[in-house]
């Protein structure tokens, strides 16, 4: 490990010296601001063979070369998206090594982490610190990872706080995704692929048709189905003795193993786009999409990879804990399933995600000013049945859930493009949201025959909603102090309110000492919350074009993420403050960033350097407090700082060759967390010795490393395209991604440690020189590396009979194993 780190340091130092010694970049001097970018021809041939291609980004809500924008951004072109099969948020992590995605079954459904800053997956009310923006509209829910992305123009990974242009909930960064728009020439493309490991077929097609010289449409769709799976589920029939608390009778119920191959995904996506350009000054784009995704197990990627017993066996199942793509889960007992709310008739586990969205973009050029409007409506519904001990045991816990989200937003921006030194942008945003949540939980050892049929086997039910409303105004002024020196200053003011409700309508009588009913005598059975948040987030950037070929910038940035309400929490009879358990405060960030962007060797070598230091106040951290049997969201102060170096080399001497990579150092730690949660099984000698103000034992986590925050990450890739004869092209690519070790646990649990790893993606393509057809083989994670990007403690571990100091089983969010896909595509 030390040799690897020394090598990375040496490479970083060398790259930095070259960057400072020999800067040169080709800058876009047009100043043309188009949002979205529709006047670019992605198929245009380069003026010269070889050399670097320019990528246009909208990191400042205007079209700029990626090398001209004073923001740390990794841009993924349309060609790279196709070559590397970037079809989901998870797959973006292979190209941006500081970005990690953990797929969770319940709660928010995801943990997105960038530069060591992320959001807990266990609370559905916590929005992601890494915001996802699709076609200019904000999608802050963790379930965005269920969306399949296809027919894309580009992807941008904006690192660090991005409040000014992207609003609330972008304290760690932004993933900006832009789909293709229609063209005014007929165009059609289709792909058919087969992936061997999952026995998965995929069909995709898209096309643009001009209806007139002012109107064009594009329609695209994708369908895929796994006949197999990527994870093995190994379990046995489990027989549960269920006590009827009304009669005292005990009955037997058998839970059969869940699907042996998971996730068995089936997905259908479609998007239609209408483009209207009545003249050169007005562009109107309307996009509507639909997504339907089902899998055969909501927690298919939960793996017991590290366990607390010295034997290395799971305390729940007895199986050996292992770093492998294997899980152990059972369906809901088949004789209970027909009356269990939201359950499938046979009790099989599942996750069904469905979404729809409509986005309208208007760009209107008014002389030296541009008016932009972005209108969005989004809706999604997620239902699942979960083996919610995540490794099915003889205790048996199952749940089902139905949650919906809908949001309407309207954003307006006015951007000036004067020839003089002073320009400005001003804008406003309105957003209206609603989340509805229902959950049903069963413990296999309890029933109540006097309850209604749908409640007979339930332990408790939950119902909740949150209505939100956001108003924001923002603006930025840019002033050229000198022709090569520009000062930009701006701020965003946000006023947000949330009204929420939570209750547990039904509780098994045997559990009323744990779960509080709506009619509880203490009057705390129904929780109503009215929250309001106000924030001003300023930003200042100084940009210097040191030569026509080098950009140097320094920025002071701040950001804000709203507080909220944990719709899926617990109103515990053991807690005297359920309102406090379910609500949490806002999160803020501020700090500095310095960057150098350059291209040297006559547009053959691009080298970028970024250094950053950001402080976070009230970082939102969700955990289960065993002292009060309730989920609570605590806040802590934290810091992330580091250095990033990236390069890309495309020599003229060998046309078609492209070398690229990055080296990144990140130090992310808590700076103030004196009463952090203890991890399960932590002893007083290990630091679990602080009595918190609210009761229960805590640990001092000040100085501890944040969750999923590797110190060193990097990637290295090569691509080469060569002509074969006069009519054909042969290409190959290989990309390696490295991550240092890290702790997936937010509570510094040493048992959770993920060791360092390297993954390798590679592909080979053969096709027509004019790209009319192509055959490809695309391999991902060819090293078949198992690693986790998030973790939860195994429920009910350590078990009561465990020796003192036994740690909880660590159930990690595993990523995808080796996949190899063959693909045929045509385009005309």
TrEMBL record:
Show where the record puts the motif TonB C-terminal box: 811-828
Topology within the bilayer? Multi-pass membrane protein
Q: Which residues form the TonB-dependent receptor-like beta-barrel domain?
A: 291-782
Signal sequence extent: 1-26
| Superkingdom of origin | Bacteria
What's the protein called, per UniProt?
A: TonB-dependent receptor
Q: Which GO terms describe its biological process?
A: iron ion transport
Report the GO terms under cellular component. Answer: cell outer membrane
Which controlled-vocabulary keywords does the entry list? Cell outer membrane, Ion transport, Iron, Iron transport, Membrane, Receptor, Signal, TonB box, Transmembrane, Transmembrane beta strand, Transport
Q: Where is the TonB-dependent receptor plug domain?
A: 66-174
Q: Which family does it belong to?
A: Belongs to the TonB-dependent receptor family.
Q: Where in the cell is it found?
A: Cell outer membrane
The primary site where this protein sits is membrane
InterPro entries according to UniProt: Beta-barrel_TonB, Beta-barrel_TonB_sf, Plug_dom, TonB-dep_rcpt-like, TonB_rcpt_CS
Q: Which SUPFAM superfamilies is this protein grouped with?
A: Porins
């Amino acid at each position: 490990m030390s040799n690897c780190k020394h090598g990375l340091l040496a490479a970083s130092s060398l790259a930095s010296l070259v960057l400072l010694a020999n800067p040169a970049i080709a800058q876009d001097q047009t100043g043309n601001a188009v949002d979205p970018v529709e006047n670019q021809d992605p198929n245009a041939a380069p003026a010269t063979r070889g050399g670097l291609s320019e990528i246009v980004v909208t990191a400042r809500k205007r079209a700029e070369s990626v090398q001209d924008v004073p923001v740390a951004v990794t841009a993924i072109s349309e060609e790279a998206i196709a070559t590397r099969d970037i079809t989901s948020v998870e797959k973006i992590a292979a190209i941006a090594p500081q970005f990690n995605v953990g797929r969770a079954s319940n709660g928010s459904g995801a943990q997105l982490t960038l530069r060591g800053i992320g959001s807990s997956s266990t609370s559905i009310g916590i929005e992601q610190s890494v915001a996802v923006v699709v076609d200019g509209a904000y999608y802050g829910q963790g379930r965005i990872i269920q969306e399949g992305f296809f027919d894309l123009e580009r992807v941008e990974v904006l690192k660090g706080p991005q409040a000014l242009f992207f609003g609330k909930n972008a304290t760690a960064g932004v993933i900006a995704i832009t789909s293709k728009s229609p063209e005014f020439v007929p165009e059609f493309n289709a792909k058919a692929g087969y992936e061997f490991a999952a026995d998965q077929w995929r069909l995709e097609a898209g096309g643009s048709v001009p209806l007139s010289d002012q109107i064009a449409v594009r329609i695209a769709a994708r369908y895929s189905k796994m006949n197999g799976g990527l994870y093995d589920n190994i379990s046995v029939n489990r027989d549960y003795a269920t006590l009827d608390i009304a009669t005292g009778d005990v009955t037997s119920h058998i839970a059969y193993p869940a699907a042996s191959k998971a996730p068995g995904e089936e997905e259908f996506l479609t998007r239609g786009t209408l483009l209207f350009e009545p003249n050169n000054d007005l562009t109107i784009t309307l996009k509507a999409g639909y997504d339907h995704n089902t899998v055969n197990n909501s927690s298919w990627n939960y793996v017991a990879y590290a366990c607390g017993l010295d034997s290395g066996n799971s305390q729940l199942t007895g199986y050996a804990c292992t770093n492998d793509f294997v899980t152990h889960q059972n369906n809901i007992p088949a004789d209970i399933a027909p009356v269990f709310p939201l359950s499938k008739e046979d009790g099989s586990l599942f996750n069904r995600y469905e979404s729809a969205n409509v986005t309208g973009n208007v760009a209107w050029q008014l002389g030296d000013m541009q008016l932009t409007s972005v209108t969005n409506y989004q809706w999604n519904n997620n239902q699942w049945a979960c083996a919610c001990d995540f490794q099915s045991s003889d205790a048996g816990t199952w749940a089902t859930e139905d949650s919906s989200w809908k949001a309407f937003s309207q954003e307006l921006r006015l951007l000036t493009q004067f020839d003089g030194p002073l320009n400005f942008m001003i804008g406003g945003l309105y957003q209206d949201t609603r989340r509805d949540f229902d959950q049903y939980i069963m413990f296999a050892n309890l029933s109540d025959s006097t309850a209604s049929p749908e409640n007979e086997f339930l332990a408790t039910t939950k119902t909740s909603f949150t209505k939100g409303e956001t108003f924001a105004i923002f603006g930025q002024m840019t002033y050229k102090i000198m022709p090569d020196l520009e000062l930009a200053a701006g701020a965003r003011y946000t006023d947000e309110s949330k009204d929420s409700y939570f209750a547990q309508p039904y509780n098994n009588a045997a559990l009323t000492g744990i779960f509080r009913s709506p009619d509880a005598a203490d009057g705390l059975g129904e929780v109503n919350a009215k929250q309001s948040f106000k924030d001003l987030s300023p930003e200042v950037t100084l940009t210097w074009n040191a030569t026509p070929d080098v950009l140097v910038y320094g920025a002071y940035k701040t950001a804000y993420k709203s507080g909220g309400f944990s719709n899926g929490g617990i109103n515990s009879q053991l807690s005297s403050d359920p309102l406090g358990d379910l609500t949490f405060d806002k999160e803020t960030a501020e700090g500095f960033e310095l960057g150098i962007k350059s291209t040297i060797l006559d547009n053959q070598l691009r080298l970028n350097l970024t250094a950053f230091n950001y402080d976070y106040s009230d970082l939102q951290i969700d955990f289960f407090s065993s002292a009060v049997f309730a989920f609570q969201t605590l806040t802590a102060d934290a810091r992330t700082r580091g250095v990033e170096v990236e390069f890309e080399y495309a020599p003229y001497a060998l046309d078609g060759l492209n070398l690229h990579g990055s080296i990144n150092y990140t130090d992310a730690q808590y700076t103030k967390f004196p009463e952090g949660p203890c991890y399960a099984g932590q002893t007083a000698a290990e630091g679990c010795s602080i009595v918190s103000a609210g009761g229960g034992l805590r640990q001092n986590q000040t100085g501890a490393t944040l969750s999923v925050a590797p110190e060193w990450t990097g990637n290295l890739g090569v691509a080469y395209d060569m002509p074969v004869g006069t009519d054909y092209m042969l290409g190959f690519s290989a990309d390696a991604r490295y991550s240092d070790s890290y702790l997936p646990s937010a509570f510094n649990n040493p048992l959770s440690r993920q060791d360092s790893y390297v993954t390798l993606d590679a592909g080979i393509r053969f096709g027509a020189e004019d790209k009319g057809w192509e055959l490809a083989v695309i391999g991902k994670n060819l090293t078949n590396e198992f690693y986790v990007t998030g973790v939860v403690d195994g429920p009910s571990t350590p078990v009561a009979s465990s020796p003192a100091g036994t740690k909880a089983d660590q159930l990690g969010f595993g990523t995808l194993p080796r996949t190899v896909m063959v693909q045929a595509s045509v385009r005309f």
